[in-house]
């Protein structure tokens, strides 16, 4: 404690000492003052000299005090922090260049100073993202924008775009590059850190001639935000009393316990959670897409329904110029389910009218696996449906399902959807 108090007193008298003592300049050139001579006891006092070494490990620097003749110390680390430890360890908040100053004092009130500029940095780490530059939605087009600003501790970057174009190291952490043809390129970003260390990030970049117009076609839990989902209300009792606000079919986004065979991650399960009565129940989900006259679309999806799904299910994939007309026969681009299997009542035989649940299906628009009795299927045997836009404007794409006079109710009556895609051909 006496040393610290005396050192603080010495610092306050630095200007007096500077003018009352001759301070020979250190050959290193950084105000390193040495004072020495006989002390009052008649011995020889070690000449005062400020000096230190350091070792950096990322943002943490360990300083070793090698001063001579000093009894008190004051460190200034160049980031507005200080320490009076003899050999402190200091962690910087950010990489950069800092001027470290060590001021030492002895018991006679003499001071000496050592300054040194040091560079500290965390390990350099390269990273970049990319997207196509286009006025339309999705990721297509030959002009690709690259963004490497999220690289860590990097001061320069060099690009190899995978088509023979290479840049020298510079400051272009965001850059656009136009490719000559549609294909996949291996792109590499090489970054250099503050301390001269180097790192690379390599990614295969698809330069595609298609545009995905849908958002949330993966049907994960977070994708619900992109879709408008509407279900008819449930009914109860013999009089088919409508229960307002209680949807007959409930949407389960990101459902991952079952789904189409092509499912990736989760899917959308639409099930009759609140369906407790025979009747005609509708549900639909859709989203808006912007189209230009003459746009050609490739539409695809993976769909599944089980044996217990309600019979006579009319399942349409639709594109409509208005929300009001969405789901009509005229807006359907493909109809997948319409199995009118009904056996009329026979009074003489005493048998009632019966209907059979829709046969199970798990597939895409090719229709492979659909029953031959599925008279409503309108596909041509391909996994995608091609549709040409008749006029520019906003359209609505999605699914409309009507279950007519079904026999099976509840959560077991379910449809599953995944990998919905509307691709714009170029």
Describe the biggest sheet? 7 strands, antiparallel
Strand content: 35-45%
Kindly state the mean pLDDT as a whole number?
Answer: 84
The tally of helices reads 2
Q: Radius of gyration in whole Å, from Cα?
A: 38 Å
Distance between the termini: 79 Å
Uncertain ranges: 1-10, 12-30, 34-42
Helical percent range?
A: under 10%
Tally the beta strands. 31
What are the salient characteristics of this protein?
mainly beta; 426 residues; seven-stranded antiparallel sheet; 4% helix; 31 strands; five-stranded antiparallel sheet; disordered N terminus
Could you please describe the fold and organization of this structure?
The chain has two helices and 31 strands. The radius of gyration is 38 Å and the shape is elongated. It has 426 residues and is mainly beta.
Give a brief outline of the structure.
With 426 residues, the protein is mainly beta.
List the helices and strands and how they pair.
Layout: H1 2-12, H2 14-20, E1 37-38, E2 44-45, E3 52-57, E4 60-65, E5 72-76, E6 82-83, E7 89-91, E8 96-105, E9 111-120, E10 129-132, E11 143-147, E12 154-160, E13 174-178, E14 183-193, E15 198-207, E16 210-212, E17 228-231, E18 233-236, E19 241-247, E20 250-255, E21 267-271, E22 281-291, E23 296-305, E24 313-320, E25 332-337, E26 342-343, E27 354-355, E28 361-363, E29 385-388, E30 393-403, E31 414-425
Antiparallel strand pairs: 1-2, 3-4, 4-7, 5-6, 5-8, 8-9, 10-11, 11-13, 12-14, 14-15, 16-31, 17-22, 18-19, 20-21, 21-31, 22-30, 23-28, 23-29, 23-31, 24-25, 24-30, 26-27
């Amino acid at each position: 404690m006496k040393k610290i108090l005396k050192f603080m007193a010495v610092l306050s008298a630095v200007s007096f000492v500077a003018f009352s003592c001759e301070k020979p300049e250190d050959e290193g050139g950084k105000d390193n003052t040495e004072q020495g001579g006989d002390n009052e006891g008649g011995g020889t006092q070690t000449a005062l000299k400020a000096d230190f070494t350091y070792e950096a490990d990322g943002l943490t620097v360990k300083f070793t005090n090698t001063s001579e003749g000093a009894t008190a110390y004051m460190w200034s680390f160049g980031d507005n922090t200080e320490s009076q430890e003899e050999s402190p360890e200091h962690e910087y908040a950010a990489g950069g260049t800092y001027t470290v100053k060590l001021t030492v004092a002895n018991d006679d009130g003499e001071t000496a100073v050592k300054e040194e500029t040091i560079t500290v940095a965390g390990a350099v780490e390269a990273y970049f993202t990319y997207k196509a530059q286009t006025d339309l939605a999705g990721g297509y087009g030959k002009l690709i924008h690259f963004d490497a600003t999220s690289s860590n501790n990097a001061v320069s970057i060099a690009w190899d775009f995978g088509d023979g174009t290479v840049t020298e190291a510079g400051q272009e952490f965001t850059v656009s590059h136009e490719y000559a043809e549609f294909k996949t390129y291996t792109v590499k970003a090489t970054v250099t850190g503050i301390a001269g260390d180097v790192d690379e990030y390599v990614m295969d970049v698809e330069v595609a001639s298609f545009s995905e117009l849908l958002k949330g076609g993966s049907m994960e839990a977070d994708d619900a935000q992109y879709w408008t989902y509407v279900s008819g209300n449930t009914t109860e009792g013999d009089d088919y009393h409508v229960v307002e606000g209680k949807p007959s079919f409930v949407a389960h986004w990101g459902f991952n316990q079952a789904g189409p065979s092509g499912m990736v991650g989760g899917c959308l399960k639409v099930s009759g959670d609140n369906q407790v009565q025979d009747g005609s129940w509708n549900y639909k989900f859709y989203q808006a897409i912007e189209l230009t006259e003459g746009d050609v679309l490739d539409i695809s999806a993976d769909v599944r329904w089980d044996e217990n799904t309600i019979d006579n299910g009319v399942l349409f994939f639709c594109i409509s110029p208005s929300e009001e007309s969405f789901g009509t026969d005229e807006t359907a681009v493909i109809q997948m389910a319409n199995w009118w299997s009904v056996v009329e009542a026979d009074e003489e035989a005493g048998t009632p009218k019966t209907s059979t649940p829709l046969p199970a299906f798990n597939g895409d628009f090719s229709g492979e696996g659909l029953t031959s009795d599925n008279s409503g299927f309108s596909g041509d045997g391909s996994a995608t449906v091609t549709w040409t836009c008749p006029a520019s404007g906003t359209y609505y794409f999605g699914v409309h399902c009507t279950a007519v006079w079904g026999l099976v109710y509840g959560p077991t009556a379910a449809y599953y959807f995944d990998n919905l895609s509307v691709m714009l051909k170029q």
